[in-house]
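Before relying on records like the one below, remember that each one covers exactly one chain. Contacts with other chains, cofactors or solvent are not represented anywhere in the record.
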Amino acid sequence: MTVLLGDGLVQQRYNAAGRTELILPDPALSPGAVLEGPISVKAAEVLGRLLLNAEGISSLAKALNFSPAVTLESVEELERLGRVARRQVGMLVIYRVATLSTVG
């Protein structure tokens, strides 16, 4: 499983109940598929926090006083728009602001 996670063939995330689930990567998020568009207010707050430093869902939720479900929804919105990149570190998923090197 570690090899699959490391190679990006599967991704790990926490669901709204706080349990770990494995998902297949979204092909829309492949390099070069950056989408643009407006973001929600909550996603803007998450993005502002991620500009300071990379964090996981639970620390983002705690810092912003959001529920884990709202935080995950906001991060996924930003990820769909190509503004946030994820990185698997062991069993933890860390999110950071996407740069040209993380997108393409």
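Helices lie at 2-6, 41-52, 57-64, 68-80, 100-103.
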